[in-house]
Amino acid sequence: xxxxxxxxxxxxxxxxxxxxxxxxxxxxxxxxxxxxxxxxxxxxxxxxxxxxxxxxxxxxxxxxxxxxxxxxxxxxxxxxxxxxxxxxxxxxxxxxxxxxxxxxxxxxxxxxxxxxxxxxxxxxxxxxxxxxxxxxxxxxxxxxxxxxxxxxx
Length: 153
Ligand code: THU
Prior knowledge:
Blueprint: H1 7-13, H2 20-34, E1 47-52, E2 57-61, H3 74-84, E3 90-96, H4 107-115, E4 124-127, E5 134-137, H5 138-141
The structure holds tetrahydrodeoxyuridine (THU).
């Protein structure tokens, strides 16, 4: 499957690129994670897989709660798992929702993804679609973001 979007440009012009193999691996890992989603209220499973700049992969699924606002999105579970293992710089994150084509991270998750971007690099955001993966940049999903560097003035 050939990824859509300016994948090659991302790969060469910015340090947020991922290879085609990595994209597929992340999408597969996210799909597997989605199978573990705890979604008794929405019945809308989501899976996510992050790739750290050191090449490690961590996954997450959404975990809902009877007290609805306590629900945690798949992306945040995956990122929290990576952070708990000592990783703070993400190269890419893949997101999948079996019931939706090309699901994108919610606004809150975009902010959390942005928090753990590489120092100079961004983060590639891979959407799982029926026509193949689509690769975006966190900067495009969260323009003019407020992030860690804004607190270091
Ligand atoms: N959800 C995610 O896990 N990630 C997103 O980016 C979108 C929303 C989950 C939260 C909730 O469990 C379900 O999808 C419906 O909103």
